[in-house]
Structures are given as structure tokens and as C-alpha cells.
Amino acid sequence: MKRIALSILTAALSTTAIAPVAFATPDFDVLRQDNRDKSGKVDFDMLRQGNLEKSAVDFDMLRRDNLDKDAVSYEYLEVKGVDFDMLRRENLEKDAVDFDELRRENLDIDFAR
User: Fold this and answer.
1) pLDDT greater than 80 at residue 88
2) What is residue 58's DSSP assignment?
3) Residue 85: enclosing H or E segment and its boundaries?
4) What are the two backbone dihedrals, phi and then psi, of residue 4, each rounded to the nearest 5 degrees?
5) Which residues are CB-contacts of 77 (< 8 A; sequence separation ≥ 6)?
6) Taking a C-beta distance cutoff of 8 angstroms, is the pair 41, 35 a contact?
7) How far is it, in rounded angstroms, from Cα 60 to Cα 67?
8) How many whole angstroms separate alpha carbon 100 and alpha carbon 104?
């Protein structure tokens, strides 16, 4: 009887002592703020702004330069009557690689393993 009472008392005390620790959830907002407050942290917003302010590549200028070059104007070709659908069909009819068929074959091989 004493053993049973001692076991129940031990279980009750250990449950009372461990339960708050087991169910305690960390306050992630506090942890996040602590990490932000640490010295030596990386400020990604500052890095991003610094990179934007550097003399980086001007993609808009490059795009304009490429458009000014003697590039193919597909709009011009369509006005001239080039039938891209016909050209596409002719290319498909040639001895070109059928990627859909290759994909299916590769899938069949992978499933067979």
C-alpha cells in the first residue's frame, strides 16, 4: 500500500513539475527581436539597397541596345506574310527529336526499375 501511495505521489509531483515545461511554447516574436538586436547581424535590406545603388548593369539600356541592333522583327515578318505555324509544322515533320516521346520513354524506364 505504501508503495502504491509513493508511486502515485511521485507521479503526481513529477507531472506537476514537468508539465509546465513540456507545454511551454517559446515566444518566437521575442526570439526574433533578440536575433535582430544582436550585434554583427546582417541587414539584408541595407545590402539590397547598397546593391541597387551600385553601378550595376542597366538592363533597360541593354534591352534597348539589343532592340536597336539588326535583330529579327517577328512583327515585320508576320506583316510580310511569313506563316510561322506552317514553318513550325514543317520543323516538326522533319527528323527532329520528339521530346514528348523521349520523356515518355524515360518515364517508362524509371518506373520499370
Assistant:
1) yes
2) -
3) helix 84-93
4) -65, -45
5) 84
6) yes
7) 11
8) 6
Cell of 113: 526499375
What is the CA 73 to chain-centroid distance, rounded? 34
Count of positions (residues) in the chain: 113
62 close to 56: Cβ distance less than 8 angstroms: no
Q: Which helix (H) or strand (E) holds 22?
A: helix 2-23
**Residue holding cell 511554447?**
25
* E strands, 19-112, in order: none
Three cell numbers, residue 86 = 506552317
Q: Is 78 in contact with 84 (CB distance < 8 Å)?
A: yes
* Angle (CA) 79 83 62, round 5°: 60
Residues 17-74: tens digit of each pLDDT: 565 555 677 888 888 888 777 766 777 888 888 877 776 677 788 888 887 786 677 7
The three cell numbers locating residue 79: 506583316
What does DSSP assign to residue 104? H
- At residue 100, the pLDDT reads 85
Cell of 60: 533597360
